[in-house]
Amino acid sequence: MAKADLHLHTDFSDGLHSPRQVVQAASKAGLPIIAVTDHDTMEGAFRAQEYSLRRPDLGVHVILGEEVSTLNGHVIGIFLKKFIPARLSAKRTVELIHQQGGLAILAHPFHVYTGKHSDHPRAVELLSEIAFDGMETVNHGDALSFWSNKKARKIIGRHRLAPIGCSDAHNSRFIGMGFTEFDGTTAEDLRAAILTRRTLARYNRSWKINDILVHLRDAAPVLSRYSKKMATVSTS
Questions:
Q1: Neighbours of 131 (CB within 10 A)
Q2: What is the tens place of the pLDDT at every residue in 90-131?
Q3: What is the DSSP string of 20-72?
Q4: Which pTM does this prediction carry?
Q5: In 71-161, which ranges are E strands?
Q6: How many domains does the chain contain in total?
Q7: How far apart are CA 137 and CA 155, in angstroms?
């Protein structure tokens, strides 16, 4: 069984560390496969993949991904080739992901913040209408995720979706805290496992007090930098 962390952020969106540092941290954590999924950009993913190809000694395969801000909440695309625009419906976003051969994962469906627009339903309320391939049942993005993960695990049995485990790490310190386990060793083995719903969502440890303090320390400056970046993009 191999492990993959399929939801990671770099400083190209609201992550703390560079694509290079993320790949190095994944190697240190013993993760052979990661997906870099910055918010509404793939630049960090491309750079992480380029670095991993230059450093095969690190043993990390980078899957190109994106966490897309849809009208119905955040949707993760992995195995992407090109950027998916934001502010479309979740259904249309999933269609665009599939058109380029990617897989679509519903991110943190019951978290306090799903990223949806206020006048639209959450994507989890539309599962019968949207062809998701998987859903996060372990999102270890913060210390409060346990309750939303519990709700996701309760409903996944009613839908033909692969359970996905992710760290949702914005600090490379937390990479691999949540992960997807699958039978095989390669990215194609992972793809096949997701498509046949033969994955397991895992986490390797719970949040500790020091983790929470680090997370809170990071939050304000990172969000401030990201907000300024988004404001610049929206006015350009």
A1: 13
A2: 999 999 999 999 999 999 999 988 889 989 999 999 999 999
A3: HHHHHHHHHTT-SEEEE--BT--HHHHHHHHHHHH-GGG--EEEEEEEEEETT
A4: 0.91
A5: 73-78, 103-106, 134-139
A6: 1
A7: 9
Q: Are 44 and 222 in contact (CB under 8 A)?
A: no
- Per-residue pLDDT at 215: 74
**3-state class (DSSP) for residue 5:** strand
What length is written for the chain?
236
E strand spans, 83-177: 103-106, 134-139, 162-166
> CA 216 → CA 59, 120, 144, 213, distances in Å?
31, 30, 13, 5
Rounded CA separation 102/52 (Å): 20
CATH code of residue 32: 3.20.20.140
Q: How many CA atoms lie within 13 A of 186 on its CB side?
A: 3
Backbone dihedral angles phi then psi of residue 115, each to the nearest 5 degrees: 90, 10
Distance of CA 183 to the CA centre of its chain: 20
Q: 16 is in which domain, residue-wise?
A: 2-235
What is the CA angle 144-88-169, rounded to 5? 30
